[in-house]
Structures are given as C-alpha cells and as structure tokens.
C-alpha cells in the first residue's frame, strides 16, 4: 500500500480545521470532506479554516461547485451527487460495494471498496467480502493500485491487507475516534502516525 486517505467525521466539531491542517502538515496526502447533512456555507467555512496550500489535497462529497471555487483536488461521486461538474479537471472518485462495481467504474481516477472489515464508525455496517473473494479479485486485476480499502480499517488491518493489491487504505473511526473534539488533537495525531507507519510497512 502506498497511500492513506482520511474521511472527515459526518458532523463538524470545534477545532476541526486546525486538526485537519495539522494532519496535512504531518503528511496526510488526501482528505475526503464528507458532511452529508451540512449546507454549502458550513462546508465553505471549514475549508476557510485550512490554509489554501492544502486545498489540492481535499476531495468533497457534496456541493461540488466548491471544488472549482476553491481549486480543490477532487470530487467523490455518490447517490446524492452521481455526476461530476462539467469540465472538472480534478480527480473523480467513487465508492463501490461489490467487485462488479469496480469493473463498472474502472475509468474513474480511483475507487473505494467497502466494507472490508467491521466498521468502526458505523454499527452494524459489517464485513462484506469473504477473504477468498478479495484474493480472487486481486488475481483478476479488479483490486489494483486505483482501489482503496474502506471499512473498519485500523493499523493492524492495514498490515493484514498486505499483498491484496490495494493502492491504499481509507480511515475514519480509526483516526478520529468516537466523538472527537479540539482537546483530542494529540490522540488523533498519535493515531495518524500509527496508521502512516502501518502503510509504510505494508
């Protein structure tokens, strides 16, 4: 694996922009800004809390017009927003929940496959793929460097996925914890360092 991608918590919290900035400064290459119930103004306010030198590392899941407005790195397609803006030049990604979907959307810049393990942040959102199915998907080229593992990913699981062909891992709960706040900055950075170390070793 080569890259760690972080997804924001679904809701905003005090100090979030400052912590995101610290993560970028520590080496986070890509952050998916996902706040499905937040309005455009709230998303824009969060972006404003982050230095513009990091905007190219941010991918948004909603309010795609902000991607061009702030020269963000990409958009992530979903049921709410199934199409990228016209003439968009950033990356276009999408989440997949079956091996077949990986083939259907292989023309996009990169894909998430989930859930791989029992979700840390979503109770009841469990393991969706038998291990042999993942191995077969790797052998057939469906899992490749453009596909990222999502769902229950922590440092130990990153090491477990070594050899399966994923380009990297996507984390949410393993990074942010249950209910993050500004006072949790040190713990979040410690977890980030553990995750980055696991990526380097996998």
From TrEMBL:
<dbReference type="Pfam" id="PF02581">
    <property type="entry name" value="TMP-TENI"/>
</dbReference>
<comment type="pathway">
    <text>Cofactor biosynthesis; thiamine diphosphate biosynthesis.</text>
</comment>
<dbReference type="InterPro" id="IPR022998">
    <property type="entry name" value="ThiamineP_synth_TenI"/>
</dbReference>
<dbReference type="InterPro" id="IPR036206">
    <property type="entry name" value="ThiamineP_synth_sf"/>
</dbReference>
<dbReference type="InterPro" id="IPR013785">
    <property type="entry name" value="Aldolase_TIM"/>
</dbReference>
<protein>
    <submittedName>
        <fullName>Thiamine phosphate synthase</fullName>
    </submittedName>
</protein>
<feature type="domain" description="Thiamine phosphate synthase/TenI">
    <location>
        <begin position="18"/>
        <end position="174"/>
    </location>
</feature>
<keyword id="KW-0784">Thiamine biosynthesis</keyword>
